[in-house]
Amino acid sequence: MACKKKIRIGIIGAGSIGSLFGGYLAYYKTEDFDQEIIFFSRKSHCDAINERGLIIQNKKNTLHISGIKAYENLSKFYEKLGGAYEFNFDYIIISTKSIDLENALKEYKEIIEKSTCIVILQNGIGNEELVAKYYKKEKIIRIITSHGALLKEPGKILHTGDGFVEIGFPFKNGSKSKLEFLCSFLSLGGLKTNVVENIEELIWEKAFVNIAINPLGALTRLDNGELIKNTNILKIMELLIEESVSVSQRLGIKLPNKNYFKLAKDVAYRTKENKNSMLQDILRSNPTEIDYLNGKIVEIASTLGLATPINKFITTLIKGLEKSYL
């Protein structure tokens, strides 16, 4: 009997969405590959996974996933390995909050440098440029997804809304075979995935959706589905997207002629039971990703001489909320 090929995948910042992806990757079993999935996450989440495994509850099933190893930090990881063990990951998936990206790139430098591919699974604009400041561009893969996930309690993830998964090289010069393998592996695990040539287009498209939904959910405390029942909120969503599209056009980003407002409404409907990630941050008194979404639009617009008053106002409100508890 032929030996299985070992595939090592690390998830840095395995919260809700990182645990969802990592969990589905661990759940899939094949005769060809033996996948080793390792989470780096908060202690309570790690302890629960190491003791009882990971639970993913979706609309159809409750999955009990064993075999994932979880560590609070690199020190705990190396302690378990015995120190001098050479450990190389095939894929390192970074799913921290965007605001924590640079710290993660520095803290986990030893394992990121030795990994074959660096996969960004985050919201926001400009993330890949930040990663490219520290690591080779050809190693960087970006994942864009509209799946909804909620960390219900340590060791338990709710898959709150189905969506798409698109992956690609933001700098268009990586290993096609590595990209296609990750695509196949995610799809077999239950997250149907497509490889796209122009991932930049989807980065902006996803940003438009997040810019419209996330801060308004955070400010109103409403689930995604409730947002689109309110005509006044819908008008604000539309204005936020109009400003953001104008900024992208001035930057020269090549985007298809889509109705991004309709897209945002469709995503909100498909994830209607989801508390978006920014709302989850507010409810937990955590910093939000506003600077990588609406705040990034305001920042770029200011360099281009454009006015984005609605995005600026919403950014100010979210930052005011953050200041009340940080």
Protein architecture, described:
- It is built from 14 helices and twelve strands.
- It has two domains: 5-197, NAD(P)-binding Rossmann-like Domain (Rossmann fold); 201-325, N-(1-d-carboxylethyl)-l-norvaline Dehydrogenase, domain 2, CATH 1.10.1040.
- α8 (199-220) packs antiparallel against α10 (231-251), α8 (199-220) packs parallel to α12 (277-283) and α10 (231-251) packs across α11.
- The strands form two sheets. The chain has an eight-stranded mixed β-sheet. A four-stranded mixed β-sheet has the order 4-3-10-9.
- By secondary structure, the chain is an alpha/beta fold.
How would you describe this structure in keywords?
about 325 residues; globular; N-(1-d-carboxylethyl)-l-norvaline Dehydrogenase, domain 2; alpha/beta
**Uncertain segments of ≥5 residues (pLDDT<50)?**
none
**How would a textbook summarize the main sheet?**
8 strands, mixed
Number of strands: 12
Radius of gyration: 19 Å
Brief write-up:
Helices cover 48% and strands 19% of the residues. Helix 6 links the parallel strand 7 and strand 8.
Topology:
Layout: E1 5-12, H1 16-27, E2 33-40, H2 43-52, E3 54-57, E4 62-65, E5 69-71, H3 74-81, E6 91-94, H4 101-107, H5 109-114, E7 117-121, H6 127-132, E8 140-145, E9 148-153, E10 156-161, E11 165-168, H7 176-188, E12 193-195, H8 199-220, H9 224-227, H10 231-251, H11 260-270, H12 277-283, H13 294-304, H14 309-325
Helix pairs in contact: 8-10, 8-11, 8-12, 8-14, 10-11, 10-13, 13-14
